[in-house]
Amino acid sequence: MEDFEPNIIGFLCNWCSYAGADLAGTSRIQYSHNVKIIRVMCSGRVNPMFVINALQQGADGVLIGGCHPGDCHYQHGNYLARRRISVMKKLLEFMGINPERIKMTWVSAAEGRKFAEVVDEVTAEIRKLGPNTKIRRKNEW
Amino acid sequence: MVDQKMLVEVAKETLAREDVKYIIGYKKGSYGFQTSAAFAYTPKDVEEFIFTPLCNKNLAKYPLKEEKLPLKRGEEEDKRKIGLVVKGCDSRAIVQIIQENGMKREDVVLIGIPCPGVINQKEIEKRFPNQSEITDINEINDEYVFTVEGKEHKIPKQELLAEVCKTCEYPNPVLYDVMIGEEVEVNPKAEYEGIKDLEEAPLENRWEYWEEQFQRCIRCYACREACPLCYCSTCMADLLEPQWIRRSVNLSENTAWNIMRAFHLAGRCISCGACENACPMDIPLMELNKKLGKEVKEMFEYTPGLDIDAKPLLGSFNPDDPEEFIK
Question: Residues of A at the B interface (Cβ-Cβ below 8 Å)?
Fold first, then answer.
């Protein structure tokens, strides 16, 4: 699996994690290129079906980034996201789909360095898990 | 056993109330071991109400699915209540629906029945297949007594009891206006025994198990239609824009559908077993629901369907929720 480059979808919240990723870029910090970022207005916007759809459409992992607890721009969106994702992870685990493919992180707008570290870490972990084959959609007709 | 006469009497009394439109209860089915929902508008309709161990359907969905035609000019909306015969699990479904503002407490009149447990429809139909005659089942001293093709059968209750009833924590209605008979004794047992083996199996074996199950799914959505808590006016599965799951029946989409269904019931499922009972392909859907119920109980100390003033699980939060998985 050494040459396997994982495909990771990152749902980052507009106010913290996305700005954090922006800072990582403007500070010219080098980090893995595997995370494809989708900006959402809040981590609470991430419907758990987004995650399932990403896994279906070929993602090997999903990273959800939100503000630190208490810092949410919409007061408590990240708390709600946390509950949803923790329940979803339990469900996937029970179904035999590795819950480690779903990652969640709190990154503030000032934490460009942390964002780069988290992405590197997540990429390394997903690389170890190998490609996702379980619920991947096969386009055949 | 539930007193049939008392049920009819109470239903009649309720129907006589000025603010009650009609009553939904159970009546004999048209064949075999079936019962069906009865809609009683007149005292004569009420006469056919029954409650036997075969009444395993959940009636809580009917008030929500009532067709509301547009009003003619000058016509006023019929704001009278709907009567409903509820078992323990049905009443919890009603509580959950009220909690989510799906209906109002004053919209329904509940006739509570302390439920001694209902029959596993699939099991009895497997033992006595293709019965066309209407069969009555009586529960006498922990045995089900019934006559099939002129021969009397006595089968121990535990053999035919529905899986969900074996571990039922709330056989008595939690919300009711009139209660029929005495409360039954609660038989506390380890509720999550059934999923223990699967929980302890390695990840790959679990996937093999569910792969086999989901492969059989024909996506008829009977589980959704039977579930008292799947009452969204437009289901995500039916949407085309955005299309959350594709219509094609294959493993990927079937898994996505089953994840979606189970997740939507996280912290809401009241374990009535209607989905599993309705599934034509015998997929063990209650295992998913039970697992989520267990996790929700452990992680958030939350039990759905008990308090109409509680907040929905996924619509509320606690700053101290577990977050060891977050980096």
Answer: 48-49, 52-53, 56, 69-70, 76, 79-80, 82-99, 103-106, 118, 121-122, 134-138
Q: Which of B204, B302, B314, B317 best probes binding to A when mutated, by most A CB atoms within 10 angstroms?
A: B317
CATH of the domain at A121: 3.40.50
Q: Pick B140 or B27 by higher pLDDT.
A: B27
Tokens of B160: 């035919």
As for the ipTM of the complex, it is: 0.93
Q: Which residues contact B248 (CB under 8 A, 6 or more apart)?
A: none
B39 lies within 8 A of chain A by CB: no
Place of tokens 């106010």: A15
Q: How does pLDDT run across A72-124, given as a tens digit for each residue?
A: 999 999 999 999 999 999 999 999 999 999 999 999 999 999 999 999 999 99
Residue B189 has pLDDT above 80, yes or no: no
What's the rounded mean pLDDT across residues B279-301?
92
> Is residue B190's pLDDT more than 70?
no
What is the per-residue pLDDT for B137?
84
Report the number of distinct structural domains present in chain A.
1
Whether residues B252 and A94 touch (CB distance < 8 A) is answered with: no
In a domain, A2, yes or no: no
Q: Is residue A65 part of a domain?
A: yes
Nearest CA in chain A to B315: A80
Chain-centroid distance, C-alpha A29: 19
Residue A44 maps to a domain: yes
Look up residue B103 and give its DSSP letter: S
Distances (CA, A) of B30 to A11, A33, B54, B77: 53, 64, 13, 34
The answer to the question of residue A45 being in a domain is yes
Domain with A84, as residue range(s), is 8-129
Which residue from B250, B252, B266 is facing A87, i.e. has the nearest CB?
B266
- The alpha-carbon radius of gyration of chain A (Å, integer) is 15
DSSP 3-state of B21: strand
pLDDT in tens, A115-130: 999 999 999 999 999 9
Region of A10 (left: φ > 0; alpha: ψ -120 to 50; beta: rest) is beta
Please list, in sequence order, all residues whose beta carbon lies within 8 angstroms of the beta carbon of residue B18, skipping any fewer than 6 positions away: B80
Q: Which residues of chain B make contact with A97, given a CB cutoff of 8 A?
A: 207
* Neighboring chain B residues of A90 at a CB cutoff of 8 Å: 291-292, 295, 299
**pTM passes above 0.95:** no
What are the extents of the domains in chain B? 4-66+79-179, 193-312
pLDDT digits (tens, 9 = 90+) for B84-127: 999 999 999 999 999 999 899 999 999 999 988 899 988 888 88
